[in-house]
Amino acid sequence: MNSYAPIVVFAYNRARLLRNVLQSLRENRFAEQSELYIYIDGAKDADDQKKVSEVIAVAQSTDGFLKTTVRVALKHNGLAMSIRDGVSEVLKTFGVAIVLEDDLYVSRQFIAVMNTMLQTFEKDGRIMQVSGFGAKLSYRIGEKQEYYLCGRAQSWGWATWIDRWNTIDWNIVDYQEFLKNKTLKKNFAALGSDLMRSLQKYMNGEMDVWLIAYIYNMYRKKMYAVCPRHSLVRNDGFGADASNCSNYNRYAIDFNKNVEYNVPADIQYDKNIEQNALRFWSVRYRMYGKIMTIVTDLCGLNA
């Protein structure tokens, strides 16, 4: 087997963004030694087919990797099902996977760091995933710590192992038990003011977002994501054509595509650092994001 984890990219109908994330990956020194899988969701309707066809053309012309495999869905499945099925398929073959969506842009050290973290934390039972995304920490908060543990899973460039992935209960069979426990609910809500409502909508079938089930399972298992202090990933997908992101990006990051990293052999949980990172999912930051989205729309900045 190839010693580098396969890279799995999920795309839909934005050819420009897929082209950009693939170019950023090609600039990584281990790209030519990594297998690439591109999953493309099917079109919603005839009007959407042209955009999806452009994405397929970009994917099929991709070079610069050890091997490129393109999977095109026969119908529109949505991002949640696409990720659940695609990640599961790749993990069955390789045991590990690095996962990206088409609207991300990665640093030149992304592949190297993600592989190092997968190897370093493989046997650490506290870790559910390793993340390429890291929210910007306040000045002097953990300034000497390049990585930190966070109880909230991340979806913007991450990696995991099959044994962790296979523990996820997507149906959340213990949901009713959870609702009766005030302490469990309070501690879960501490990971983000959006989580309780999102979980309720997920369970009611009103929201098909894979991440909320992933975060819930990680929380119930008392596990963490390993996040970098200086993000290895930038999200370029905020805008009018985004499927799940508002027009304004409220998540501040430290991003430098040439940044160098040294992955520690061990990492300790620091509650102060975690709380500082989680502030971006607080009521205050979420309200600011909604206000800025309205202002952006009114000013026509996304036209």
What's the structural blueprint in terms of helices and strands?
Layout: E1 7-11, H1 15-26, E2 35-40, H2 46-60, E3 67-72, H3 79-94, E4 96-101, E5 104-106, H4 110-120, E6 127-131, E7 147-150, E8 158-161, H5 162-165, H6 175-179, H7 182-189, H8 195-203, H9 210-220, E9 224-228, E10 233-235, H10 271-278, H11 283-298
Describe it for me?
With 303 residues, the chain is an alpha/beta fold. It has 2 domains: 102 residues, Spore Coat Polysaccharide Biosynthesis Protein SpsA, Chain A (Alpha-Beta Complex); 146 residues, no CATH class. The protein is built from 11 helices and 10 strands. Strand 2, helix 2 and strand 3 form a beta-alpha-beta unit. Helix 1 runs parallel beside helix 2. The chain is globular and about 50 Å long. The mean pLDDT is 89.
Morphology = globular
- Give the uncertain stretches in residue-range form: none
**Helical proportion?**
25-40%
Oligomer: single chain
Extended strand count? 10
User: Strand-and-helix sequence, N→C?
Assistant: EHEHEHEEHEEEHHHHHEEHH
The SS-based structural class is: alpha/beta
The overall average pLDDT, rounded, is 89
Radius of gyration: 19 Å
* Beta-strand residue fraction: 15-25%
Count of runs of 4 or more consecutive helical residues: 11
Largest sheet: 8 strands, mixed
How far is it from the N-terminal to the C-terminal residue, by CA?
Answer: 47 Å
Q: Order of strands side by side in the largest beta sheet? A: 3-2-1-4-8-6-9-7
Jot down its keywords.
single chain, 303 residues, 2 domains, eight-stranded mixed sheet, two-stranded antiparallel ribbon
